[in-house]
Amino acid sequence: MGDRFEYRNVRVDGDSAPIIEGFSARIPADGLTAMVGPSGAGKTTLLRLLNRLDDPDAGEVLLDGRDVRSYDVLELRRRVQYVGQVPVTFPGTVAVNVGPEVGPLLDRVGLPAPLADRDADRLSVGEAQRMCLARALARHPECLLLDEPTSALDTASKAGVEALVRTLADEGLTVVMVTHDPRQASELADRILPVGGP
Amino acid sequence: MNDLSGRISWADVGLALLLVAVAVLISRVRRTGLEGDIAVATFRSFAQLLAVGFVLDFVFGGSSALTPLVLLAMVATATLTSGARGKRVPGAYWIAATSVSAAAGGTLGVLLLLGIVPAAPRAAIPLGSMIISNAMTTASLVMGRLRDDLAAHRGEVEAHLSLGETATEASASWHRTAVRNGMLPIVDQTKVVGLVALPGAMTGMLLAGASPSSAIKLQMVVMYMLLGGNAFAALVAGQLTVGRLFTADHQLIRSLRRVAG
Prior knowledge:
The structure holds 2 protein chains of 2 kinds.
Chain A: E1 3-13, E2 18-28, E3 32-36, H1 43-50, E4 58-63, E5 66-67, H2 73-79, E6 80-83, H3 94-98, H4 102-108, H5 125-137, E7 143-147, H6 155-170, E8 174-179, H7 182-188, E9 191-194
Parallel strand pairs in A: 3-8, 3-9, 6-7, 7-8
Antiparallel strand pairs in A: 1-2, 1-4, 4-5
Chain B: H1 10-29, H2 35-60, H3 67-85, H4 92-113, H5 121-152, H6 154-162, H7 167-170, H8 172-192, H9 200-207, H10 212-245
Helix pairs in contact in B: 1-2, 3-4, 3-5, 4-5, 4-10, 5-8, 5-10, 8-10, 9-10
């Protein structure tokens, strides 16, 4: 399989100095790629370029060989789903959050079916993060961007979410995960993309 | 007649200044440090009202063609005030100008078209000034609230965007809150009108010797006009502010997202 994403000589400016400068890398379509680096290295910024929550100040970002800016942005974001560090629940039940396919999706992310009727803001952090994954999967994406998906979780739910992410990658989704944890990267990822640092 | 119109002399105004002296004295005794501000405020109000009185005498006395100019000057001042207040929103001056003009134009237009008030400077200028000053406050409130809310809830807004929602959809709940927040003061005022305080227009008519029954009718028109005007201003300010806080590609503008890492 070819490259899903490619960064070409990307620069993103911060308030005073560039956050990212001259960054080039390829992310294959298959498996799980972990972006690893110290905090402040610009991992999150790089991830946000992939679904265009942000755009580079110089260089380009390609999806399937085309500049991400050449796609309709709403369609791009549907195809490339993003789940952040802290789970964001919307008002209403889990079913309202996830949508009509809530049953099979809860099953897929390992949440019990009765949870569908619970208010989303009454979930534990671990449950909420799984629900966010279900909500992203409801859009039938081709890629999943995960920004430190386990950093807000306790040890038990962390292992569960890690296993889930691994399964999703095995099922054919392109998964790009940002982590500051080398242990997590080496255990989970098919390849590691170092960002910044030595 | 015991109405006050035409009865107040400059000597009376001078005597009323005694009350300002009382304010200064209290400020001095209580060490509030406001004496300077009181002096400035007194002088400014004196100069501003003197100038306005002059202009209005001129306009009312036959130069009614100048009415749009007077209203335009008021809109310009309101724009500068509200625009400066909302300056963390890009294009705040433009947003303020549009919302205040829409409120003034829309509301005055309806009143004139329906023949509720005559197309005379004596009606258009004071009514216009009330709409404009209220719309100014509303525009500032809506711009400030929307900007602060979207900045504070950046993660939630971007979670919506990430699912493929448009900027309009992603900001809908904060947009609603901001518009509501901009309209609430006038709604509350309308609810308690006459119970907590006699409002300005009515007070003015009573002091000028009008009967209470005609004063209340004018006050009703004024309240309904302000409700309509503020709703206009809130609607336009909200819509334009959302437009300025997102890019055309449904991204929050950079100043609202500071990302570390």
